[in-house]
């Protein structure tokens, strides 16, 4: 007899938010475990990766790209600034903050990418090629759609 504490399949949830949050927690746990030896959390790795991709960017724009509210983004950026992996400066408007990756930040990202790649490859292999592509597609569509909806 199978234990209810260890089901073979997850109980289907009929709520998009609950299903996405459950998936997010499980996937974050996987990447977090892979990144733990680097001293980076998955959220910090994401910010370093985003800054590497976009270069210098306004904090508000970074928050919009990553769908992170200003307070959470500020709290997540602070340890990266303190570690000198990113740096901030004032923009043309004194209220505007611009962030960019530093050379030590690029090195930290480079060293963490190998650990990140392990989690990425394992998840991709576990889902299969079509499953992986569909997964990324569906998540990107969901994020885009949700950001456009105003209640």
Question: Can you summarize this structure?
Answer:
This protein has 151 residues and is mainly alpha-helical.
Provide keyphrases for this structure.
151 residues, mainly alpha, Arc Repressor Mutant, subunit A, 6 helices, 3 strands, 66% helix
Would you kindly provide a written description of the structure presented here, covering whatever features stand out?
With 151 residues, the protein is mostly helical. It has a single domain (16-145), classed as Winged helix-like DNA-binding domain superfamily/Winged helix DNA-binding domain (Arc Repressor Mutant, subunit A), CATH 1.10.10.10. 66% of the residues lie in helices and 8% in strands. It has a three-stranded antiparallel sheet. Strand 2 (86-90) and strand 3 form a beta hairpin. The longest helix is centred in the last third of the chain and has 25 residues, at 103-127. It is globular and about 50 Å long. The N and C termini lie far apart (47 Å).
């Amino acid at each position: 007899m199978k234990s209810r504490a260890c089901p073979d399949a997850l109980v289907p949830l009929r709520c998009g938010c609950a299903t996405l949050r459950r998936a997010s927690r499980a996937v974050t746990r996987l990447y977090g475990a892979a990144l733990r030896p680097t001293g980076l959390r998955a959220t910090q790795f994401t910010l370093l990766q985003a800054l590497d991709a976009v270069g210098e960017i306004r904090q508000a724009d970074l928050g919009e790209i990553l769908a992170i509210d200003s307070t959470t983004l500020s709290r997540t950026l602070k340890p990266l600034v303190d570690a000198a992996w990113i740096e901030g400066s004032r923009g043309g408007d004194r209220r505007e903050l611009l962030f960019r990756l530093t050379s030590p930040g690029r090195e930290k990202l480079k060293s963490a990418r190998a650990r990140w790649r392990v989690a990425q490859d394992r998840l991709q292999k576990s889902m299969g090629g079509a499953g992986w592509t569909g997964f990324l597609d569906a998540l990107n569509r969901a994020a885009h759609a949700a950001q456009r909806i105003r209640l």
